[in-house]
Write a structure and sequence with these properties.
globular; 35% helix; alpha/beta; 389 residues; homotetramer; nine-stranded mixed β-sheet
């Protein structure tokens, strides 16, 4: 039980921005966090109007994050924001994140964590130097049945992991939407804003994170092939990667944004010696566990057989079985665990293990390294590229 | 765009209460509402502790709703709560709802709206007299694809409605849990707290509401058979009803709380001359539309083909297709539409048609009448009982 | 291991007939039966042409069943047909079935077994008198996972049965097809050919059979409401029945042939004290078993965990898991079990218990009684009608 | 309408053999083919006993195929077998197939068609030289909705094909079953009997065939990685291949036989510019078609909207929608189309286009080339290997 709500500021996420609105819903949901200030847009008029729409106090609607950090840092401790959420395009993550940490603010940042791996490493150094907290919003790691999947692998019930298939398939870039006024498409396909990879940076990183998170195994080698399917596009909009993991497991990672008719089809299957698990983001409350020698089981979030579900799954549910929770709740779980941990830290309490299970800067570094390695492998004629950081 | 957040009070919903927590998440979600006060429990200590956990100002943690209404009514207009949410057991809905209205507060109330039909009718009179607003939380009417289903029927695409099958199947009362310390089970199976029906009052009313809401047809006759399946229980825990609707449609309503292994399986199918629709609460983002003469279609919440989805569906989505929204978002939609309408009213703006589409006192009266008629039919040896109010 | 193929004759089932062709596929499938003769149509030219298409010997293509029985009865034992399959419309089952038995031929007959209950009872007497075998083709009882469901209930694993929901929903009579030259629709909606019920006779009987077969419980009372939904139709094309079973179980049976967009949606759910099962004909290789206190299980036909599947399920599979078997194989199982038993009888071997598990005249009598009772209940204003034979 | 049944002989497929029994069911099903002779085992006693169980005439139960070809070739035309089915292990396909052709018999042969590509090419030359027919039993090409998928791509409705994902995942070799007396496992993992690849030869070839069959595009380059997952195994039991197709399409092929808990999970997805299709062998009567700009559609085998289904789909169905057909019917379709074509040829009639759509020697050559190329790519450090024949 916390003593007070945590105070959040936001950089980016002005009106019409997609992911900023999602972050606010996720942060609002559990009543543990209040948005107190923001530098919501590079454009002063948008920043002001957006702040007003969000009912911010007029003097805490800032026009730049620079201004925001300075002003907030000078506020008394019982008023000052506790953390800042950065929801700008990729190229604009690093500078405000560094400045936040330097000014004593904890950080929530969208993935990929930075524009380059080098920036991510500098950020890690700064996090360690300051002792502040950083949440990287790999949303899919917030789903209760993803937590369950991780714990199930960890328990050894499936036996040694042999195969990992992960795929993330979307269709929204099937046309050259970046030339048709789609703001999302525009920056995400622009190498100066998005980074050196499009599809793999945007969604391949989620898939890779999920595979490593659930299996507990790190990628050691990869064999990637990226494609620009839509003529005129500047970055990969599709690709596939053969994977080798620690301990001899192998797998595949498929990502596409030109798979016409697909929505947001992230799915993972992990096979061990004795059984396997399957989880699909679009039916997130179900974890199918198949066994070599007995009938498959359907594990359900929020279900009554709490002895069969790990504490990590139950901690991350808000409702009983059959009351579907979704993407926003998964996102909310990231915020909730971050907030529980941060409040505990502020108030000198010990955080629970379940609260600490949120993605942070190390996951960010894996993500940036994944992008680097995939791009390098794609450019190589060698079949296998060692995964390096 | 509203000028300010709406201020909410809450009656009931202290710590450990199930539905109160759900209401708060739903109200928090969109950042349009803030909880400012509460009379959260009949027990002063619980009320105080719960208020503290929710970060209420100490002077707005009340021990009784009586006290709350008095104190809040005296506050200045820019501080006073705008509406009160009543999440007590059924028998304790009516008194605070009446008192709220009498003191000038809008009302959000759990279903069934009151303990008896007579109370519901008095409440309706009071709503009309005061001109205040009432939201009845028939959650399932808040799902975007339920909205879509209603609009699809209304469009005439399916032709004249012939059949309606609705079922609501749970298993959580498969044992005599009310004697094993399950608080939810305890009051819901107690006729002095729940009303004259158990299963039909608790979940049959949801099913009946959904059927009438989507089809636009009212039940005119029914043939009900209720059961007490678990020995020692005082109210029906299971039942089935044959239905006749306006305009010649017929149907069935099945409800059970002793269907071992089921979670919260609310499902509806509506058949017209040319095609049909199917929606299941546990996969809520999908509406299956089957046609007599062409392939079935899968309509998806949040999808890109916005020309095929009604404005009622799109208005009630927060995310693009494939980012599953669930029960809490459906609940949030009730609050959001209520809040949008209330803010518009307060600020003298015209509400949109989509905002006005939330359940209110008339739905509450239908619910109470449904309970009365089902119980009467169950007691009768006549096959068909006319549905009366 | 049989010594020889069994020899089959057929009455009805000429070219363009639907169910005759299905019977032949089912009989052919396992190579244990050969079609040797037929009286395939009332029309001599159709009978002749159909026989030729089926490669029958010209002298065994008969123009009437009368002629066929006489001729076949005079053939030597090693040539004479062993059994006759009757696939004429309902009104023309009884006479050939009686004549077959009187001439010493075993019988396979489509359901409903006769036109009236009285005929069914006479047929039963004749079966008992002659000691010959009769197979009633309640196809759905031939599916391996239906066998599994029956054995699972019998094992007691689910506990005492409380609820049975069965539904059989089709859409093919959504229009007045009987006036549009649809031969199937024509006789099935004609009371002089089909019997006193349309939908309930045609598919309601399948649903009732499945419920009693799986649960092992007989219907004791019913509360039926039948409808003629399509104007101009002469028999019910839709209906619903509330059911009471032996040992206190209750249930519902829904049947419709005017549910636009539905194909052949037969589905059953059986709930016991500890768990439940769900089987749907359109995904027949899966039996979902849900438990009150542990995760649901997916039992699959042909799967490797043969210790978990009953011998009745495994006996009725031809392929390993994941090679879907369907309607024709289920139909083939009826023929196979009938043939295995008949061969054993002929050759003086003891049939296995699994072979004997095929529907016969007693099921036929239950079917005819079901029709009678449903029609009587529909005509009554009393809520409940005792199920009588 | 044929004049007579076709006469089939069989090589291999003695009692306890898996695939021989499947072939017989498939051939029997439609009553167009009769099994008249066989050389059913290398072991004379098994050959004799198996022939007896299948009710073969004693003088047509042969101990060797050599003997069978000689004896049958000398029979009069109205008695002699028309074609021979070869269901021996891979290494024993070529010799009997050549001998059959040389003796004037048409051939049905299991895939992979031969042991080496060179043999396949010789066989092709012999087929062309003799003008006889050969059916290669790529079963999955027999499913009606696979036919529909092919026609849908061909129609251009999906636009230019961009992506093809195909996967074939089984778990039955998760343990070293070949050392535990599993006869199937034993020869399929033995390079002297199975060929140079295990998993890719056994099931990868099916997946590759399906991809090329449906898309109409040939593989041009591949990047393969094969694994021996289970210690002690001699051939690959797992692998993944990145694919490049004609006309710029790319894709992935995943195959595994060590995916614990999987049955026979063959699935394909094909993405075009405007939409995509998805088909899974374990739910074979459904073809999901997703569109970029409108709701996804569910196309169903046997459905009433015959204007939307191609003649290739409807020709390959035996039952109306909702009466599931499965693996055996798909297999039966291969035999049926082969038999219809062969009868037409024998009787001097023109075969229909739909009948001619069965896999033959060219598919066999593609299959052998696929194996060669995958194995070559796996051994290479170059990322991409040109697909050569």
């Amino acid at each position: 039980m916390s003593n007070r709500k945590l105070r959040m500021g936001m950089i980016g996420g002005g009106k019409d921005a997609f992911i900023g609105a999602i972050h606010r819903i996720a942060a609002n949901m559990d009543g543990q966090i209040e948005l107190v200030c923001g530098a919501l847009s590079m454009h002063a008029d948008v920043a002001q109007e957006s702040g007003k729409m969000l009912f911010l106090a007029p003097d805490r609607i800032y026009n730049t994050y620079d201004e925001m950090f300075k002003a907030e840092a000078q506020k008394p401790a019982d008023e000052r924001m506790d953390f800042v959420t950065i929801v700008t395009p990729n190229f604009a993550h690093f500078a405000p994140a560094m400045q936040a940490l330097e000014n004593g603010f904890n950080v929530v940042v969208e993935k990929p964590v930075t524009f380059t791996l080098e920036e991510a490493q500098q950020l890690k150094a700064k996090v360690e130097e300051t002792g502040l907290m950083l949440l990287l919003t790999h949303t899919y790691a917030g789903y209760p049945m993803v937590k369950e999947a991780k714990q199930l692998v960890k328990s050894g019930a499936l036996g040694k992991v042999r195969k990992i298939y992960v795929e993330y398939i979307q269709g929204w870039l099937s046309r050259l939407s970046e030339r048709e006024g789609n703001a999302q498409a525009s920056w995400r396909t622009d190498p100066t804003k998005s980074g050196k990879s499009g599809c793999m940076g945007d969604i391949g990183t989620h898939a890779a994170h999920l595979a490593e998170y659930i299996s507990g195994l790190k990628i050691t080698e990869l064999n990637a092939s990226l494609n620009i399917v839509v003529d005129g596009r500047m970055l990969d909009d599709d690709g596939a990667v053969l994977l080798r993991f620690e301990e001899g497991a192998t797998g595949t990672l498929i990502a596409s944004q030109v798979a016409a008719g697909e929505e947001n089809a992230l799915k993972i299957r992990v096979y061990g010696e004795n059984g396997s698990l399957e989880w699909a983001q679009m039916e997130p409350n179900t974890l199918i566990v198949k066994w070599l020698d007995k009938p498959a089981e359907i594990l359900r979030a929020g279900s009554g057989y709490t002895d069969r579900l790990s504490s990590y799954a139950t901690h991350n549910c808000r409702t009983p079985g059959g009351h579907p929770e979704g993407y926003l709740e998964a996102f909310g779980n990231l915020y909730r665990n971050f907030a529980l941990t941060l409040s505990a830290k502020i108030e000198g309490r010990e955080p629970k293990a379940e609260w600490l299970d949120f993605p942070s800067i190390d996951d960010g570094i894996r993500g940036m390294a994944f992008i680097n390695n995939v791009v390098a492998s794609n450019q190589s004629n060698e079949k296998w590229t060692k995964y390096t950081i």
